[in-house]
Design brief:
Chain lengths: 729, 326
C-alpha cells in the first residue's frame, strides 16, 4: 500500500512540476536555443520519473496477482485517511484490483514511451515543449493515478471522487486538438455521457447509503448494514450496471466511443480504449461482488448476457462496415465489450444456477479477455496512430501499399488484427476458447439458458467472421496492394520503396520509441497465445479468490482448461514443424528450377519481381492507376456485400451519380456509415430537448432582477414545503 | 498411434485421386471419357517442376500464405477421426480449435489475394469471407446439436467414443438432415458448383479461383493440394457421420462417453479392414454425389448463395428440434 501511494505521488509530481517549469521559464525569450535544450532535458527527466512511478505501480500489480513475497492480500492492505469530522476515505487492494492495476500501469507505461516520439517528432515545432503538451502530460498522470485510485478505493466517497477525476482528466486529454470542430464535438459527447454515468452512480450509492442507515461510507459497512430485499438489490445492480456501461461502451450507450476516439491523440485513445473502458467492467465486477452474488436470481445474468449479445453483434457489424480506421477500432471496442459482457452474464447465470465450474470458466474468460483486449487494442491504436500521423489521413480507402513504408508497424498491426479475430496461437483465441467452453456448457442448464447460449455461440462464431472481414479489410487495404493515392508526406520516404532497403536499421531508428512499444505489445499477444498457461493459472486463482469458488475440484480445471492449453502449445509445435517441412520442400523445388530457368531464358530478362499483377488482360500502369480510381478495389467495396446483406442493422447514407439527361456523366458512388443509435435515438432526444428549451424560453428574460425574483420565490416555496411536510409528519 | 498415422498418410496421398472422381462422374454423366484417375498427380508434378513468377506488387505474405494454409489443413486432418478410428490428436474442445485453424488458413489466402492489388482478387476475397461467415453459423449450430447429444466438444467424441450415443439419440432423419447441411458446407467451402464454378472462365463471377489468379508453379501446386485435402476433410466428416455404428460396437469395447482422450495422443483402437472399406465407400460416394450435383445444376447467382447456405441452417434447426428430449 505504501508503494501504491508513494508511486502515485511520484506520478503526480512528475506530471505537475513541468507545468511550473514551463510557466516559469516560458516568460523570457532570449537565449532560445539553450532554453530549448534545457527544457528537453527536464522533459526527459520527468518522463522517466513518470515512467518509474507507473512501473512501480505495475510491480504492485505483479506482486498482487502472483502472490510474490508471500503477500497476504486479504489482511493488511488497507489504508484509511481520516479527512475531517469523521469522514474518511478507505483504500484497499485485493487480487482483483491488483490485476486491474497491472493492466492499467502496463498499458500506460507503453503509451507513455510511445508518446515521446509521437508528440515530439511531429513536423510542426518538432521538439518544443509547450504548455499544452505539458498540460497533456499532467492530465495523463492524473488519469493514470485516478484509475489506480478507482480500483483501490473501498468506500463511496473515494470511489466517486476518483471516478470523477478519471472522467474529467480523460475529457481534457481527448480535447487536446481542441482547435478542430470535430474534436470539440466528440469531447463534448464524452463529457455528457460520462457525467450521466456519474449522476447515476451517485444516485445508486445514495440509495444504498440511505438503506444502510448508520455507519461510514465504506463498502463493507454498507453491505453489512444494508437491509435491502433481493429484488431491490437486483434493481440497484441494474442501475449500477447502466452507469458503468456508459463508461464501458456497451451498445446503446456507446455513442461517445466512435466520436471521441478518432479525435484523441493515439496514445490517449490507446489508454481510453485499452484501459479506461475496463474500469466500467471493474465497476460491474465490484458491484456484483458487493451486492452479493448469491442473492441474485438468474434474471440478472440473463439480462446482462442478452445486452452483451446485442452489443457484440452491433459492435461487430459496425466494425466491419466502418472505413475510418480509428472509428473502426472504436466500434471494435464496443464489440469486445459485448463479448466480455457475454462472459460475465454467463458467469452470473451459472452462479445463480449453482454451477460453479461454468461460472469460473466464464469469469476467467471475461478477465483474460479484458487483458487481451487491453493488449491488442492498444497495439492497434498505437500502430494506427503512427500511420495516421504520417499520412495525415485516416480513411482505409485512401491508403494502400503502406507496408513498404512501415514494415514493422504493418506486421505488428497484422498480429493485432489476427488477435482480434481470435485465430489460434494468438491471445484472442484463449479468451474466446474459455467463453465458448462455458457457453457450450450453458446449453444444458435449462430451456431458457439453452436459447440464450445458443444465440450467443452463434453470434460469437459470426462475429469471428465479421471481424475477419473488418480487420483483414483494414490491414490489407491499408498496408497491402498498390497505394491508391500518392502520399505527399511520404515522398521523403519514397527512396525506401524497395523492400530490401526497408530492413535497414536507419529507418527503424528514426522512430525507435514509437516502434518498441508496438513490438512489445505484439510480442505479448504472441506470448499469451502460445503459452497461455503462464497467465491462466493466475487468473483462475484470482477468480477462485474473488468469487469464492474454491470448492471446485482442481481436477476439473486440469481437464477442461490446463490440459487443452498445454496441447494447444504442443499443436503449435506440430504446426511449425509441418510448416518448416513444407518450406524446406518448396525451397528445394525452387532451387533446382530457378537455376534451370535462368540458364534457358537469360535473354528474356524475366525477373521474378518485375511482372505486373494479372488484371484480366486489362493492365494499367501504376501511374495510371493513381490518377484514376476506376479499377481500384477499395475497402468499402470489400465489405459491401456483407453490409448490404445486413442492411437494416447498419445505416447507410448513399450518394451516387444518377443518369442525367441521356448519358451517365460521371460515375461515382459514395457511402457513409452512420451510427444507428446516434441517428435514431440521440438526435430525436436532442430534438426534444431543444423543443423543451424553446418552450421554456419565456422564463429566461436575461434581466438580473427577474432572476433575483426567481431565487426568492423558490426559496420561499422550499421553506413552505418543508413546513407543510413537517406538520404532516 | 502408428496405425492412425499410416492411415492418415494414405488418405492424404490418395486425396488427389479422390478429387478426380468428381470430374470422372461429371464426364460419365455427359457421356465423355473423362480425365485419367491419376490426372491430378500429373498436374501437381507438373506444377512442382515449374518456376514461380511473382507480381511486383506483392509482399512476403503472398509467398507465405499457401504454406500456412497447407500446414493448417494438415494439422486439422490430424484431429480428424477416420471411420471409427480415433484421431491422431485430440483434446477437450478441439472443435473450436479446428475451425478457427481453418479460418487462419483462409485469412492468409485472403490476405494474399488482396496483396496483389488486383480488383478481381479483392472481389473474390470479399465473397469468400462473406459466404464462409454464413457457413460458420451453420457449422456451429451443428456442433451445438452434437454437444447437446454427447456433452462433449471434440470431434473424436462425436465420431468415435460417443458415436453410439449420437446415433441412438439422433435417429436416422436428423442424421440425414445434418449430413445434407454438412454437404452444403462442403460445396461452399470447396467452391463447388451451386456456389462457385471451378471451371468458369470469367474472373468477375469466380470466388475461390479468382483469389489465386496470381499464383504459379509450386505455390499453385500447394494450393491445389490444399483444396484437395480440404475436400477430403469435409467429405470425411460426412462419411464419419454416416458410418454405421453397429458393426463397430461389437468389436471395439467402448464405454459410453468414456474420456478415452484424456491425453492428446489417443489410445489405439482396432480398425478392422471391413470397416475401412465401408468408410472408403461412403467417402467415394460423397465425391460421386458432388459430381452428380455439379452436372445436374448450374451455379447460383451470387445473390442467391446466402439463401442457399442459410437454408441448410433450417435443416440443422429441424434436426435439433427432432432430437429434443426435454
Amino acid at each position: 500500500m505504501d508503494l501504491v501511494f508513494g508511486s502515485l505521488v511520484v506520478i503526480f509530481l512528475a506530471g505537475v512540476i513541468p507545468i511550473f517549469i514551463i510557466v516559469g521559464v516560458g516568460e523570457n525569450k532570449e537565449n532560445k536555443e539553450s532554453k530549448e535544450s534545457r527544457k528537453n532535458l527536464w522533459l526527459k527527466i520527468f518522463m522517466i520519473l513518470l515512467g518509474v512511478g507507473i512501473f512501480s505501480e505495475m510491480l504492485v500489480g505483479l506482486i498482487g496477482i502472483f502472490n510474490l513475497f508471500s503477500f497476504n492480500l486479504n489482511s493488511n492492505l488497507k489504508v484509511t485517511f481520516i479527512l475531517f469530522n469523521g469522514i474518511s476515505m478507505h483504500f484497499r487492494i485485493d487480487t482483483l484490483s491488483s490485476y486491474f492495476i497491472l493492466i492499467i500501469s502496463f498499458v500506460s507505461l507503453i503509451s507513455l514511451i510511445y508518446s515521446y516520439d509521437y508528440f515530439f517528432k511531429q513536423e510542426e515545432n518538432s521538439t518544443s515543449l509547450n504548455l499544452s503538451r505539458t498540460l497533456n502530460y499532467f492530465f495523463f498522470s492524473v488519469l493514470v493515478g485516478s484509475m489506480i485510485l478507482v480500483v483501490c478505493s473501498d468506500d463511496i466517497l473515494s470511489f466517486i471522487f476518483s471516478w470523477e477525476l478519471m472522467g474529467i482528466s480523460s475529457f481534457l486529454l481527448i480535447i487536446y486538438h481542441h482547435q478542430k470542430e470535430e474534436t470539440r464535438h466528440g469531447g463534448l459527447y464524452y463529457f455528457i455521457f460520462s457525467h450521466i454515468g456519474v449522476t447515476l452512480l451517485i444516485f445508486g450509492f445514495a440509495t444504498l447509503y440511505s438503506y444502510a442507515g448508520a455507519g461510514d461510507f465504506s463498502f463493507n459497512s454498507l453491505i453489512s448494514n444494508c437491509k435491502l430485499s433481493n429484488a431491490m438489490k437486483e434493481c440497484l445492480f441494474i442501475l449500477f450496471f447502466v452507469a458503468f456501461s456508459l463508461k464501458g461502451g456497451v451498445f446503446p450507450l456507446h455513442v461517445w466511443l466512435p466520436l471521441a476516439h478518432p479525435v484523441a491523440p493515439a496514445h490517449i485513445s490507446a489508454i481510453l480504449s485499452g484501459v479506461m473502458i475496463k474500469m466500467g467492467f471493474y465497476g460491474i465486477f465490484r458491484m456484483y461482488l458487493l451486492l452479493g452474488p448469491e442473492s441474485f436470481s438468474s434474471k440478472v445474468g440473463s439480462l446482462i448476457l442478452f445486452i452483451g449479445i446485442v452489443s457484440a453483434l452491433m459492435g461487430g457489424l459496425y466494425t466491419m462496415a466502418q472505413n475510418n480506421l480509428k472509428k473502426m477500432l472504436a466500434y471494435c471496442s464496443v464489440e469486445n465489450a459485448g463479448i466480455i459482457l457475454i462472459a460475465m452474464g454467463m458467469g452470473m447465470l451459472a452462479i445463480s444456477l449453482g454451477n460453479k465450474l461454468v461460472a469460473a470458466l466464464s469469469f476467467a474468460g471475461a478477465l483474460i479477455h479484458i487483458l487481451n483486449h487491453a493488449l491488442f487494442k492498444s497495439l492497434l491504436f498505437l500502430s494506427v496512430g503512427e500511420i495516421v500521423q504520417k499520412t495525415h489521413n485516416d480513411s482505409i480507402d485512401k491508403m494502400g501499399g503502406l507496408i513498404k513504408y512501415f514494415p514493422y508497424t504493418g506486421v505488428c498491426f497484422l498480429i493485432g488484427a489476427l488477435a482480434v479475430i481470435g485465430v489460434p496461437f494468438l491471445n484472442g483465441f484463449i479468451g474466446e476458447f474459455l467463453i465458448y467452453n462455458s457457453l457450450f456448457r450453458g446449453i444444458s442448464f435449462n430451456n431458457f439458458s439453452f436459447i440464450i447460449s445458443v444465440l450467443s455461440i452463434l453470434i460469437l462464431a459470426f462475429l469471428g467472421m465479421t471481424s475477419f472481414m473488418g480487420f483483414i479489410k483494414a490491414f490489407s487495404f491499408t498496408f497491402l496492394g498498390e497505394s491508391r493515392v500518392t502520399f505527399s508526406s511520404l515522398s521523403s520516404l519514397s527512396s525506401l520503396s524497395s523492400l530490401s532497403s526497408l530492413s535497414s536499421l536507419s529507418f527503424f531508428k528514426n522512430d525507435r520509441y514509437m516502434h518498441y512499444p508496438i513490438m512489445i505489445l505484439a510480442l505479448l499477444c504472441l506470448l499469451i497465445g502460445i503459452c497461455p498457461l503462464l497467465i491462466l493459472k493466475t487468473i483462475f486463482a484470482i477468480v477462485d479468490k474473488s468469487f469464492k469458488l474454491q470448492s471446485i475440484a482442481s481436477g476439473d480445471y486440469y481437464t477442461y482448461v490446463f490440459l487443452p492449453f498445454r496441447y494447444l502449445s504442443l499443436a503449435l509445435g506440430i504446426f511449425i514443424v509441418i510448416m518448416m517441412i513444407i518450406l524446406f520442400i518448396r525451397h528445394k523445388l525452387l532451387k533446382n528450377k530457378s537455376s534451370n530457368h535462368f540458364d534457358n531464358h537469360v535473354d528474356n530478362h524475366v525477373d521474378d519481381h518485375n511482372v505486373p499483377t494479372w488484371d484480366c488482360g486489362y493492365e494499367m500502369t501504376i501511374k495510371e492507376k493513381k490518377d484514376n480510381f476506376q479499377a481500384c478495389y477499395s475497402g468499402n467495396s470489400f465489405s459491401f456485400s456483407m453490409v448490404d446483406f445486413l442492411r437494416p442493422l447498419i445505416l447507410l447514407r448513399e450518394n451516387y451519380g444518377l443518369i442525367k439527361e441521356f448519358f451517365v456523366s460521371n460515375t461515382r458512388y459514395q457511402v457513409e456509415i452512420r451510427d444507428l443509435v446516434e441517428v435514431k435515438i440521440i438526435s430525436k432526444f436532442l430534438k426534444w430537448i431543444s423543443y423543451l428549451k424553446s418552450a421554456g424560453q419565456w422564463i429566461e428574460k436575461g434581466s438580473t432582477q427577474m432572476h433575483i425574483f426567481y431565487i426568492a420565490i423558490s426559496l420561499f416555496l422550499t421553506v413552505v414545503g418543508f413546513f407543510i411536510w413537517g406538520i404532516h409528519k | 498411434m502408428m496405425r492412425q498415422l499410416i492411415l492418415l498418410l494414405i488418405f492424404i496421398i490418395i486425396s488427389p485421386l479422390l478429387y478426380a472422381i468428381i470430374s470422372r462422374t461429371k464426364a460419365f454423366l455427359v457421356g465423355k471419357k473423362g480425365i485419367p484417375f491419376l490426372f491430378n498427380y500429373y498436374t501437381l508434378i507438373k506444377l512442382f517442376r515449374k518456376n514461380v513468377i511473382y507480381s511486383k506488387t506483392i509482399t512476403p505474405i503472398f509467398k507465405v500464405a499457401p504454406i500456412i494454409n497447407l500446414s493448417a489443413i494438415l494439422l486439422v486432418l490430424m484431429f480428424l477421426p477416420l471411420g471409427n478410428l480415433s484421431p491422431l490428436l485430440s483434446f477437450k474442445g478441439d472443435v473450436l480449435f479446428i475451425f478457427y485453424l481453418l479460418t487462419l488458413g483462409k485469412i492468409f489466402m485472403v490476405l494474399a489475394g488482396v496483396d496483389t492489388g488486383s480488383s478481381f482478387e479483392g472481389m473474390g476475397c470479399a465473397r469468400e469471407v462473406f459466404f464462409s461467415a454464413l457457413g460458420e453459423i451453420v457449422l456451429f449450430l451443428i456442433f451445438i446439436m452434437f454437444y447437446r447429444l454427447t456433452n462433449q466438444l471434440e470431434l473424436s467424441s462425436y465420431f468415435v467414443e460417443g458415436k453410439l450415443i449420437l446415433h441412438s439419440k439422433a435417429t436416422l432423419i436428423p442424421i440425414i438432415f445434418i449430413s445434407i447441411a454438412l454437404f452444403v458446407i462442403l460445396l461452399l467451402e470447396n467452391a463447388r458448383v451451386p456456389v462457385d464454378d471451378p471451371l468458369t472462365h470469367l474472373e468477375l463471377t469466380m470466388i475461390h479461383e479468382v483469389m489465386i489468379l496470381d499464383y504459379s508453379g509450386p505455390d499453385l501446386g500447394i494450393i491445389h493440394l490444399t483444396s484437395q485435402l480440404k475436400m477430403f476433410f469435409y467429405a470425411a466428416l460426412i462419411s464419419n457421420l454416416l458410418m454405421p455404428v453397429t458393426s463397430v460396437m461389437s468389436i471395439v469395447p467402448i464405454i459410453p462417453v468414456m474420456p478415452v482422450t484424456s491425453g492428446m495422443f489417443s489410445v489405439d483402437v482396432i480398425l478392422p479392414f471391413s470397416q475401412l472399406i465401408v468408410f472408403t465407400a461412403i467417402l467415394i460416394s460423397v465425391y460421386v454425389i458432388v459430381g452428380v450435383v455439379e452436372s445436374s445444376m448450374g451455379r447460383y447467382q451470387l445473390k442467391r448463395v446466402p439463401k442457399f447456405v442459410l437454408s441448410s441452417l433450417v435443416l440443422v434447426v429441424l434436426a435439433t428440434i427432432l432430437t429434443w428430449r426435454g
